[in-house]
Amino acid sequence: MKLKIAVLPGDGIGPEVTNQAVKVLKAIASEFDHTFSFKTADVGAIAIDKYGDPLPDKTLDLCKSTDAILFGSIGHPKYDNDPSAKVRPEQGLLKLRKELGLFANIRPVKAYKPLLDKSPLKKAIIDGTDISIYRELTGGIYFGKKELSEDGNTASDLCEYSRIEIERIAHLAFKAARARKQKVTLVDKANVLESSRLWRKIVTEVAADYKDVDLDFLFVDNAAMQMILNPKQFDVILTENMFGDIISDEASVIGGSIGLLASASVGETHAMFEPIHGSYPQAEGKGIANPIASILSAAMLLDHFELYNEAELVRLAVDKSLKLKITTPDINSEFDSITTSNVGDFIEDFIFNPNDSNRN
Ligand code: IPM
Ligand code: MN
């Protein structure tokens, strides 16, 4: 298969982890006789520094003309502490999602056996957890009208949803549940918010097309509690933009490190793959950033193009690296000298020689 892939490394640890994912995709291409071509472009704080724009036209055009996008991370502390900054790195990511129509963000959460003792949660609670979060990504409070009064003392962000925005992601979530444990949990705040009541109504209507899938509802505050009390109860979680943002960071605690969580953002015509972690500027350039989230995002890219054997091999290599503790310090206190690229090299090598007996 021929694939054109845009690589947007972004800020902080983005470039280091994305390099490892590209390395892995190149190994897959060579092992399975695919032609993957890569073109890199700037996004985020680095693009503001160079061009004064977090998503330069050149970057957007490249993304529009490729089959898939591999995204690193964006953000820089100098913007976080400056509420008056008019141009912010995050605007680049939000605009990209909107322009490419990436309305569904899929975030798998798993408790990896070798890492069960890395989570602050009890083993018995997390063992066996396997959740797929379907987060709506181009609507809601993130994209509603924003206002700041002239005197600067009142501000508002509108949370708006329309039928079509809810229906299209609901269908994806139900289809996914069909191939999993046949359960969708809608997370909302329907006891307070009108937009949540619309979600409940429409998702209930959509559920009628999927009689083989159970639908239940949880208020987001309760869902946040259930996520750490009993995460195994969940199969597919369907939710709006901001609740999905919050609950997926919370869910990352189950895996033992946010450095493990991958995501796919898909729409009608485009697809982007990115780790859910941020730019982690404190770790930049130190070789300690965990590349697994980015590498697993590359595996989701392969799945997206139905290259299932290829994706499976990447996941097998990741599992092996975790088992052998070829991992960065966030999940490895014993061998804290293993670097970001050591992990990438191990996974690359596994792809070339999956049956190497010297690896034990
Ligand atoms: C994420 C991030 C983004 C979001 C930020 C960087 C805008 O936290 O992808 O989860 O809030 O969607
Ligand atoms: Mn987030």
TrEMBL record:
Look up the coiled coil feature and give its residue ranges: none
Q: Which InterPro entries match?
A: IsoCit/isopropylmalate_DH_CS (IPR019818), IsoPropMal-DH-like_dom (IPR024084), Isopropylmalate_DH (IPR004429)
Task: Kindly indicate whether the keyword Magnesium belongs to this entry.
Answer: yes
Any idea where this protein resides?
Cytoplasm
Q: Which residues bind Mg(2+)?
A: D221, D245, D249
Sites annotated Important for catalysis: Y142, K189
Obligatory cofactor(s): Mn(2+); Mg(2+)
Q: Does the keyword ATP-binding apply?
A: no
According to UniProt, this protein's pathway is: Amino-acid biosynthesis; L-leucine biosynthesis; L-leucine from 3-methyl-2-oxobutanoate: step 3/4
Which positions in this protein are listed as binding substrate?
A: R97, R107, R135, D221
- Give me the reactions it catalyses: (2R,3S)-3-isopropylmalate + NAD(+) = 4-methyl-2-oxopentanoate + CO2 + NADH
Cofactor detail note? Binds 1 Mg(2+) or Mn(2+) ion per subunit.
Q: Check the record and name the Pfam families matching this protein.
A: Iso_dh (PF00180)
What is this enzyme's EC?
Answer: 1.1.1.85
Q: Please provide the record's keywords in A-Z order.
A: Amino-acid biosynthesis, Branched-chain amino acid biosynthesis, Cytoplasm, Leucine biosynthesis, Magnesium, Manganese, Metal-binding, NAD, Oxidoreductase
Which segments constitute the Isopropylmalate dehydrogenase-like domain? 4-347
Q: Which GO terms describe its molecular function?
A: 3-isopropylmalate dehydrogenase activity
NCBIfam families in alphabetical order: leuB
Q: What does this protein do?
A: Catalyzes the oxidation of 3-carboxy-2-hydroxy-4-methylpentanoate (3-isopropylmalate) to 3-carboxy-4-methyl-2-oxopentanoate. The product decarboxylates to 4-methyl-2 oxopentanoate.
Subunit text: Homodimer.
Q: What family name appears in the similarity comment?
A: Belongs to the isocitrate and isopropylmalate dehydrogenases family. LeuB type 1 subfamily.
Protein name per the record: 3-isopropylmalate dehydrogenase
Species per Swiss-Prot/TrEMBL record: Psychroserpens algicola
Gene name in the database record? leuB
